[in-house]
Amino acid sequence: MRRTATPPKRAKQDKPALEPEDFRVHLIEKAEEIAPRDVAEVLERAAEVRAKASRPAVDRRLRRRLEVALELLRDHVTDECPQIPLHTVAVLAVAVLYFLNPLDAIPDDLGRIGTVDDALVLELAFEAARAGIQRYCDFKDHSTEGLFRIE
Description:
The chain is mainly α and 151 residues long. The protein has helices spanning 20-31, 36-44, 46-53, 60-77, 86-100, 116-128, 130-140.
């Protein structure tokens, strides 16, 4: 009798090392540690954020979220919009600082794939701070089209 080759057993597909929930938890934990000086640091690095956001690997939606985040943080610091909840400020500051970190979960020097984690963190930040961002956009008469996952 002729034996047929037995296909090799496939390794069980392991759970990904990091899940979106891991990023969300990190974001919220770090937001609880944000101090006013941290927000000021983000604004001092706004040109760096914009330069990095202008790279071809950064998609349009991520770029727009970064611009809204920087504007909201600036308006908070300059007291242009006193209606911004502190939770919103903290979450957005953490997300922008994450974007600036070149050695995060997926290193930024990996081209387009290097910004996937940055985009996820900004998306999670916009969902976590949705009410405050919506309030800010209403106050500034800005459109929120494309800012949130579910419109």
